[in-house]
Amino acid sequence: MLVYSRDCLRHVQAPGHVESPHRLEAITRKLESLNLFDPKTPEPAARAMIERVHAKAYVDLVETMGDGYLDIDTAVRPETPEIARIAAGGVVEAALASVKGRRPAFALVRPPGHHAGPDYGGGFCYFNGVAVAAAVLRERLSRIAILDLDAHHGNGTRDIFATSKDVLYVSTHQSGIYPGTGPAGDVGEGPGEGYTVNIPFPARSGDASYELAFREVIEPVLRQFQPEAILVSLGADAHYKDPLTMLALSSPGYLTLAERTLDVARTLCKNRVAFALEGGYHPQALAEVVAGTVALFRGESVHLQFRDVADETARGKEAVDRVKRVLGPYWDL
Ligand SMILES: [Zn+2]
Question: What's residue 126's pLDDT?
């Protein structure tokens, strides 16, 4: 099940900005060529829904800014708030459809959301769609897991749910790049201690490192947490073709992770799993990762162009071992 709005193409940053409409255009073209493009159009998320995870003062700031900037790379224009609410609404729609229909869903939306926190935006993000969707699902279900596979740490999602034990946040990301948060030692706060899992990889970590993290940390934690639904912040910027990061996942590597996530969702939470697009700045690599994931929903596979495996020895093993030590008091790993 796909959610997509043409309005998401109307969101334009500065000329030449990597977070451009070409990203979504490449994805929809690829899906159309494979006969996989049959989307539903979402409603914009209502303000009250946005305010479940963002402070009213911050929502006011974005809604009334007109022309301005949240940070040097994140422009606000008069149309931005509406498009950001459509993007968030798309994630909510995909999440609700996956819960109702007990089948995977994908929200093909932009701008992305995972760097937007309780009272701030930035990093190309305004409203945190995955966080809004988790808050909406949390009203119906007891435990929600968020798996953030974007190459950057989702500081916004982390901050929104840092004190929650009902919303588990798990992030794999490249250590030391924007936004500079997400060390292994950050396990959440107060009642949410242990329910934030950060797996920061060194540069050039790829397929073997991610598979190790899934096997030794992510899958065991999910099995013990027993989520009733899973939301995936899917960024394809951990791909070796990506211009912004130094991670090295291949397209088949990404699809192995998607397949394992779908397996976990089938086993643990009745197929209630929704993917939302975050980053990914090499349009062709992004398009084949997303199309491959959507094809997996139907048990199909697509031809993959970008197959180079650069990390056969699990360069991130030490990082994974450290995460296991840090999480020892909270989870049986
Ligand atoms: Zn990213």
Answer: 98
Flag whether 332 is in a domain.
Answer: no
The whole domain housing 282 covers: 2-327
Strand partners, 168: 145
What integer pLDDT is reported at residue 310 of this predicted model?
A: 86
Weakly modelled stretches of the chain, pLDDT under 70: none
Residue 53's alpha-carbon distances to 28, 99, 167, 270, 325, in angstroms, are 30, 20, 13, 26, 31
- Give the ranges where 34-179 is alpha helix by DSSP (H): 47-50, 56-64, 80-101, 129-138, 155-161
* pLDDT confidence of residue 311: 86
- Ligand 1 center to residue 184 CA distance, Å? 18
Which of the residues are catalytic? Answer: 115
Q: Is 16 exposed, middle or buried (0-12, 13-18, 19+ CB in 10 A)?
A: exposed
| Residue 138 belongs to domain with CATH number | 3.40.800.20
Q: Answer whether 260's CB lies under 8 Å from 219's CB.
A: yes
- Residues whose CB is less than 8 angstroms from the CB of residue 259 and which lie 6 or more positions away in sequence, other chains included: 296
In the chain, the number of structural domains is 1
Say how many Å lie between the CA of residue 177 and the centre of ligand 1: 10
Determine the distance separating the centroid of ligand 1 and the alpha carbon of 151, expressed in angstroms: 5
Q: How far is the CA of 115 from the centre of ligand 1 (A)?
A: 9
Residue 161 CA to residue 157 CA, distance in Å, equals 6
Q: From CA 139, how far away is CA 142, in angstroms rounded? A: 8
Q: What is the pLDDT of residues 74-98, one digit of tens each?
A: 999 999 999 999 999 999 999 999 9
Element spanning 77, H or E: none
Give a yes or no: residue 43 inside a domain.
yes
Regarding pTM above 0.70, the answer is yes
Ligand 1 centroid from CA 179, angstroms: 10
